[in-house]
Design brief:
By secondary structure, the chain is of the alpha/beta class. The protein is 45% helix and 15% strand. It has a single domain, classed as P-loop containing nucleotide triphosphate hydrolases (Rossmann fold), CATH 3.40.50.300. It contains eight helices and five strands; from the N terminus they run H-E-H-E-H-H-E-H-E-H-H-E-H. The radius of gyration is 17 Å and the shape is globular. It binds adenosine-5'-triphosphate and magnesium ion.
């Protein structure tokens, strides 16, 4: 199966002459946290302000796990506030399901759950700040299902953290929280020469 992660060449700026992905502390932590989350088939939330490297960290780490462990990764990235119906459709596409999406929610849920039970996978939900309580709840529902073999990594702005934290039903199920922050001046001085 071809990867759903955007190819390395599309990571902004990293292809400029002399540019390189730097193993920052956040990237190292993400690598460990993502591996632990996948081992536990759990849910993780990587959150922080815009542009601090959340998407890059997730993509770099998962490309590695695809390559070294053959982990199957699916990816959804939201661009606007989705409805539960839109989430089902995104999952249908990300899981590579054939044919037309079912018309009725119960039938649709059954199809998605069967697919999630069929094999282990990791799902990345990027731009998760667009999710509200209801749509996060849908991910919880599919993850909670006893036969689901899915690990879910939510990456997003602080809004994602705020919504998840407010709902004990959701927050209690997040195995690892990782807060990514801006590099400090001292870290920049260390990292830039690299
Ligand atoms: N570890 C790193 N090494 C080198 N460059 C990096 C690293 N992390 C981030 N960058 C640079 O910073 C840019 C922004 O990172 P990224 O898109 O991952 O941020 P983000 O936290 O996902 O932002 P947003 O919240 O806007 O989605 C990257 O395109 C890349 O150029
Ligand atoms: Mg991003």
């Amino acid at each position: 199966m071809t990867s759903q992660l955007p190819p390395r060449e599309t990571d902004h700026y990293t292809q400029l002459a002399d540019a390189a992905v730097v193993t920052t502390r956040a990237l190292l932590a993400a690598r460990e946290n993502i591996a632990d989350t996948i081992d536990a088939r759990a849910m993780m939330c990587l959150h922080g302000p815009a542009g601090v490297g959340k998407t890059l960290a997730v993509n770099v780490c998962l490309r590695e796990l695809e390559r070294t462990r053959g982990e199957e990764v699916c990816r959804i990235a939201f661009r606007a506030r989705p409805t539960a119906r839109a989430v089902r459709h995104e999952l249908f596409v990300a899981l590579g399901l054939p044919g037309e999406p079912p018309r009725h929610p119960p039938e649709f849920d059954r199809l998605l759950l069967d697919s999630l039970a069929a094999q282990p996978r990791t799902l990345v939900v990027d731009e998760a700040q667009w999710l509200n309580r209801e749509t996060f709840e849908y991910f919880r529902y599919i993850w909670d299902h006893p036969y689901s073999q899915i690990a879910i990594i939510f990456a997003g702005g602080e809004g994602a953290h705020t919504v998840l934290r407010k709902e004990p039903m959701l927050s209690s199920r997040i195995y690892i929280w990782q807060h990514v922050t801006k590099l400090t001046l001292a870290q920049v001085q260390q990292v830039i020469p690299l």
